[in-house]
Design goal:
This protein is an alpha+beta fold and 404 residues long. It has 13 helices and 21 strands. A hairpin with a 2-residue loop joins strand 7 and strand 8.
């Protein structure tokens, strides 16, 4: 039986951030991280395409919280204690230079997630945090004032226990047996599988659009990326995050309505098309893209409207004009399935937020049991927000652990 003051189950971002903050402020404490796999920080390694999207350049707490479909209300208070600027300062003080990109995402200047991993590993080593891999936790329970933990590599005992395992059904089940309500996990941050002749030859094309899920209030606007399997990009990913539960209920079979002109109505588009017909009668419709649309997309929508390659504006009939205005502003696309966004996998679900004291990130059911990261029913849109939740929760929990 190995005895510790703090054991953290889960060798991810939230776990290491907690351990380092606690150890730095009280070097006497014995701290261990138990990781079930062969490697730690694997999710950090693949984040942001291998660059690690550390956080996002939103510096107003209440505005930052708006990026969390689940957790917005609960994170407002914690973000007033620790948020983006604090995260940047934390890494800066440890020699990790960060940069803000044009879209607000924040990455290490090195453009490598290994910089973040090296920081965590070197800090853990310097502070004497015991990092134990291949330690799969089988059970944990309270005995007197201590937590007893059974792992695949032996038993442990600790005064304080943190769960930072992310979306781990096995750990969720153990927590459920300890009177914690668990929200069933469903995927969040995914792309849409769409087979449609209108976008078949457009992979790699990016343009702004407004996306609305038919028979739903779900909608999103922003850049859309056409892929070999369908649609992705910020607008789609944002929609998948906010609609995680509803789209799961649809079993990922639904229709989306796409307005490629974003803010224009069908009637506005129709009037503009009539004007083009009157002003450029001899010009071939397909030759010059209109409404600042990419040429390939314009051509595809024109052909989908029944207008041929060599048709001039003067020869376009009323039915074709109406059809083109519909394609531009109300095109329906059938979504049949989803794909994981890059190598990142984010879920909605986890420990019900009613079970947690968000001043300390401690369980309301059991004293000296803490949570941080995606083990909680908190998730965010893409752009570094999920990591910021991890940093904030870990910081708040570390403060509470040290204050007892």
């Amino acid at each position: 039986m190995m005895n510790y003051d703090l054991i953290i189950v889960g060798g991810g971002a939230a776990g290491f951030f907690t351990a380092i903050n606690v150890a730095e402020n009280d070097p006497k404490l014995r701290i261990a991280i138990l990781e079930r796999g062969k490697e730690v920080l694997s999710k950090v390694r693949v984040s942001g395409g291998g660059r690690c999207n550390v956080t996002h350049a939103e510096f107003i707490p209440n505005e930052l919280a708006k990026n969390y479909p689940r957790g917005e209300k609960e994170l407002k208070g914690p973000f007033h204690r620790f948020m983006t600027g604090d995260t940047m300062d934390w890494f800066d003080r440890r020699g990790v230079a960060l940069k803000i990109e044009d879209d607000g995402r924040i990455f290490p200047v090195s453009n490598s997630s290994e910089t973040i991993i090296d920081c965590f590993m070197s800090e853990s080593k310097r502070l004497g945090v015991n990092v134990l891999t291949n330690h799969s936790v089988k059970s944990f329970y309270k005995k007197n004032d201590r937590w007893e933990i059974e792992s695949s590599q032996g038993d442990f005992s600790t005064t304080k226990l943190m769960i930072a395992t992310g979306s781990n059904p096995k750990i969720w089940k153990l927590l459920q047996h300890m009177d914690h309500q668990i929200i069933e996990a469903v995927p969040s941050l995914f792309t849409f599988n769409i087979k449609d002749s209108r976008i078949k030859d457009l992979p790699g094309l990016v343009t702004n659009a407004t996306i609305q899920v038919k028979n739903s209030k779900l909608s999103s606007e922003g850049p859309v990326l056409i892929t070999h399997w369908g649609m992705s990009g910020p607008a789609i990913l944002k929609l998948s995050a906010w609609g995680a539960i509803e789209l799961n209920a649809f079993e990922y079979n639904f229709e989306i309505r796409v307005n490629w002109l974003q803010y224009n109505s069908q009637q506005d588009a129709l009037e503009a098309l009539k004007e083009l017909k009157n002003n450029s009668p001899k010009q071939q419709v397909i030759t010059y893209a209109q409404f600042d649309l990419p040429k390939r997309l314009w051509k595809s929508l024109v052909l989908a409207s029944g207008i041929q390659n060599d048709t001039r504006w003067a020869d376009v009939n009323k039915l074709q004009l109406k059809k083109l205005s519909e394609e531009l502003t109300q095109g329906l696309f059938l979504v049949k399935g989803k794909s994981t966004f890059k190598e990142e996998f984010v879920t909605a679900g986890g420990v019900d937020l009613k079970m947690v004291n968000f001043k300390t990130f401690e369980s309301k059911k059991h004293k000296n049991l803490y949570f941080a990261g995606e083990v909680l029913n908190i998730d965010a849109i893409t752009g570094g927000f999920n990591f910021q939740n991890a940093w904030t929760g870990a910081f708040m929990a570390a403060k509470a652990i040290l204050s007892d």
